[in-house]
């Protein structure tokens, strides 16, 4: 639950202090799907946490940290850092040297994982949820949350990639949408 809270707080900070959005509007349905997703993701973790639904099972709260948890946490932190770096790159495209917003136009992003994929921030979102799945192994709800995120982020990545290719004739041909060298 702590990692998910950290992720949500970072995303809040990123949205309010790093990202620069265009004047386009979000569909209200998409907005509510996003709210429902985070509510459902948190509920998926909490409803299977020891001592929540099964009050008598406090022995399960003796948490044994394993190599699987360590690897999942390391991948989680790498993906969060990489996603944040991607947001910074995107935000800087619309800011001047002093860090003030100067435009809402679209540009081709460059640097780090943008050299391999159009949407490294979406790739990282998938990796974040896969890493949480590794940590939450045995949770019967989390696989569905992860599969939803994978389907959603891959679709968004493909749509963005196709938009970039159509909009920018000089778009790098070697870039994939969301999975380096594959998709």
TrEMBL record:
User: Mind telling me which Pfam families this protein's record contains?
Assistant: Steroid_dh (PF02544)
Q: Where are the transmembrane segments?
A: 28-53
Compartments reported by the entry? Endomembrane system; Endoplasmic reticulum membrane
Query: Pathway membership of this protein?
Result: Protein modification; protein glycosylation
What sequence ranges are listed for the domain 3-oxo-5-alpha-steroid 4-dehydrogenase C-terminal?
A: 61-183
Q: Which GO terms describe its molecular function?
A: 3-oxo-5-alpha-steroid 4-dehydrogenase activity; polyprenal reductase activity; polyprenol reductase activity
> Which reaction does this enzyme catalyse, per its entry?
a di-trans,poly-cis-dolichal + NADP(+) = a di-trans,poly-cis-polyprenal + NADPH + H(+)
Q: Does the keyword Oxidoreductase apply?
A: yes
Output the superkingdom of the source species. Eukaryota
In short, the EC number is 1.3.1.94
Name of the protein described by the UniProt record: Polyprenal reductase
């Amino acid at each position: 639950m702590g990692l998910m809270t950290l992720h949500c707080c970072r995303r809040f900070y990123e949205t309010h202090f790093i990202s620069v959005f265009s004047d386009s509007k979000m569909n209200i349905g998409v907005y509510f799907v996003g709210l429902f997703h985070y509510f459902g993701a948190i509920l998926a973790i909490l409803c299977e946490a020891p001592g929540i639904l099964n009050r008598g099972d406090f022995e399960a709260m003796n948490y044994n940290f394993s190599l699987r948890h360590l690897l999942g946490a390391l991948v989680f932190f790498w993906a969060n850092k990489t996603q944040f770096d991607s947001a910074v790159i995107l935000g800087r495209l619309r800011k001047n040297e002093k860090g003030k917003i100067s435009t809402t136009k679209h540009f081709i992003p460059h640097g780090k994982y943008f050299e391999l994929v159009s949407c490294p921030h979406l790739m990282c979102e998938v990796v974040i949820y896969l890493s949480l799945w590794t940590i939450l192994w045995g949770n019967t709800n989390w696989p569905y949350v992860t599969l939803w995120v994978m389907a959603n982020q891959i679709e968004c990545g493909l749509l963005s990639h196709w938009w970039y290719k159509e909009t920018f004739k000089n778009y790098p041909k070697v870039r994939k949408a969301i999975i380096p060298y594959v998709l």
